[in-house]
């Protein structure tokens, strides 16, 4: 019991102990007018960030340890009282955790406090005032709480897949250490430490970016008037969406998908067949994904075609390279999906649902309807939303890779199961890079359609009889059922690297924020 409760309580104390000092040293300094004086000092922005970060970490660790000590003293007193009243032979039911568990708790507290402190510092730097900064605690809790509560779920144990989940891996490793399962936990120490350190570095990098942006540090504090804000959005429309509008569009799409999935059982009135699958998928893609992005582009931007990357026709070389890249990436994506399923096995219930959907696809009146449902419809709707409106808004942050990464995460979350989410997020990185480097949404649609369409082609070829020309093609490309020959993987990897390098050498159109960020980076680098 202690091994499950103590990590959760300790990390909650570490988060709350980091949040309020972060608000005070960032948003509080804005209100007191001392931030400008600090920034004019000889200290570099990175040094200021690290100084504040170490201060917040100190508060976080001390707060967590003091609360832990207080709980220990209280718990020891309560247990002593219960043991005095307990019947003989039942005193072992109540006991303090072993002393060695405190060592593991303190060891795990250091990196977790660093991660939480960096996240709180970045959020607090974005706030205009301490009152606004306090509102940001809830979004942080909504993100971090599920990661800390996941280890308490039945059947969740420490394995390679779970060790790669931020915060969750630390909690599971800590639980194994407290329970004395050292040899079972030893193989997962390196993955947990690696993922935690990587998350800490990314969080610190994000905090540094916030302090390097004057538009964030010196945002004016103003009263929120909903009516004036809506009038401002429509009247003073920018050419492309803002960062907050891109985030809001992603959240709106996810909420609509959740509501549709929640109401889906009530929509089933008869037999679940291909027609029902076609209707629900069409509504999901058009109404829940594409429509919010199109409406927000019409309402909140002045250049809709530029927002959706449809303001010019792409060069034929871009379309050709997108098609070739989809062909090369498909085998790599297939083995990526296999690796993800090995890390996170699909449950028997989910396998049954996926098999049922496959059977409904095979029962379609003709092959073109499943092809349209899997290739054309997602290629248009999902690209309009995530490589169109969302990516255009996220690029206002000033870094194309941050924008590509965040839009890929949002793109992965719209898929129904975890395994598809991880694979889709990886493919979303390639799609986002295509969108940025070519500046055309049509190129992304071509890649998306061919990439999805190849899945149907591969399935059809593997289901054909092994005789004739089809059998020769099977033996030439595949080794066994749906496994590619080694030469196919080699050609796929080389082709993918070559096309990505070709895309890297293309001059791409930078946003105003990206131009400013590059100039700022050169200035801080002393160039």
Structure in words:
Helix 14 runs parallel beside helix 18 and helix 16 packs across helix 21 (441-463). Helix content is 77%, strand content 0%. With 527 residues, it is mainly alpha-helical. The model has no long low-confidence stretch (mean pLDDT 81). The radius of gyration is 26 Å and the shape is globular.
Biggest pleated sheet? none
Q: What is the H/E order?
A: HHHHHHHHHHHHHHHHHHHHHHHH
Q: Provide the β-strand percentage band.
A: under 5%
Mean pLDDT: 81
Number of helices: 24
Number of strands: 0
Oligomer: single chain
- Helix amount, in percent? over 70%
What is the 3D shape? globular
Brief characterization of the structure:
The protein is mostly helical and 527 residues long. The protein is built from 24 helices and no strands. Helix 3 packs across helix 4, helix 3 packs across helix 10 and helix 13 runs antiparallel to helix 14.
Secondary structure elements and pairings:
Layout: H1 2-32, H2 35-39, H3 45-85, H4 99-126, H5 130-135, H6 137-149, H7 160-163, H8 168-178, H9 182-185, H10 189-212, H11 214-217, H12 226-235, H13 243-267, H14 274-300, H15 304-307, H16 316-343, H17 348-362, H18 368-394, H19 400-413, H20 418-438, H21 441-463, H22 468-477, H23 486-504, H24 512-525
